[in-house]
């Protein structure tokens, strides 16, 4: 689907929700997409992208950033602590802060470097064993812990279970964010971003609807399961 069509659908959902046109940030999820497809979206003027692997982003984005101004790249996949330093150099935002050990590592690096990407805490709203994220009941404490480490936490992120109504998860995430005074909500993907916008998403992560189906990759399972 052309980028313009996605943008039109976003604007329609923004207005339907009584929100200002242009208030939702579209993160174009370029993971596993061939470079020519990514380049085509850059050529159309889009500048905000999402990747779920540090290594893949490191191979792809420095070249594009040299060619195009004002590109920002968000990490939307799991982050191992031993890749945290590299991630801080590559990404403008990290949506997958999900455990104390990672928070402490990011805090140490942020102190050392005097800067830190915007951080989202990932919440496992469906309480799925295979999925990353803090449990809803642990989120308030974890937000506090991140704040006491002086981390720039801007919001929460979730990936709803594939077989459940996503709006229930979006509403839960919005509720947890509100009671913690967090403004940003990273929620909504190709199949459900309109419902996420209706429930307050500030950042939507849309891949296949923009770029087409992901081309399979040997080491990559094609899913938003995380990890
Ligand atoms: C791949 C991925 C997306 C995009 O999924 P689409 O269904 O292609 O829009 C969004 N969020 C996360 C965390 C992902 O891994």
TrEMBL record:
N6-(pyridoxal phosphate)lysine: modified positions: 31
Described purpose of this protein according to its UniProt entry: Pyridoxal 5'-phosphate (PLP)-binding protein, which is involved in PLP homeostasis.
Entry superkingdom: Bacteria
InterPro entries, per the entry: Ala_racemase_N, PLP-binding_barrel, PyrdxlP_homeostasis
Domain Alanine racemase N-terminal: 17-214
Protein name stated in the entry: Pyridoxal phosphate homeostasis protein
Keywords: Pyridoxal phosphate
Transmembrane segments: none
Protein family: Belongs to the pyridoxal phosphate-binding protein YggS/PROSC family.
């Amino acid at each position: 689907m052309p980028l313009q069509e996605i943008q039109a659908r976003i604007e329609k959902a923004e207005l339907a929700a009584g929100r200002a046109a242009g208030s939702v940030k579209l993160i174009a999820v370029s993971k596993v997409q061939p470079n020519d497809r990514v380049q085509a979206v850059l050529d159309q003027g889009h500048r905000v992208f999402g990747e779920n692997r540090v290594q893949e982003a490191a191979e792809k984005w420095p070249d594009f950033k040299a060619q195009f101004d004002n590109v920002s790249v968000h990490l939307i996949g799991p982050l191992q602590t031993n890749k945290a330093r590299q991630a801080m150099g590559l990404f403008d935002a990290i949506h997958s802060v999900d455990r104390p050990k990672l928070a402490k590592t990011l805090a140490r690096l942020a102190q050392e470097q005097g800067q830190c990407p915007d951080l989202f805490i990932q919440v496992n709203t469906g309480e799925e064993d295979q999925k990353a994220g803090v449990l809803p009941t642990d989120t308030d404490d974890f937000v506090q812990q991140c704040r006491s480490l002086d981390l720039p936490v801007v919001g929460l992120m979730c990936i709803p279970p594939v077989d459940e109504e996503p709006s229930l998860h979006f509403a839960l995430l919005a509720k947890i964010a509100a009671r913690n005074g967090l403004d940003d909500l990273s929620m909504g993907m190709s199949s459900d971003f309109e419902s996420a916008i209706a429930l307050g998403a500030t950042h939507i992560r849309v891949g296949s609807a923009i770029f087409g189906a992901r081309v399979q990759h040997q080491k990559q399972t094609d899913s938003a399961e995380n990890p």
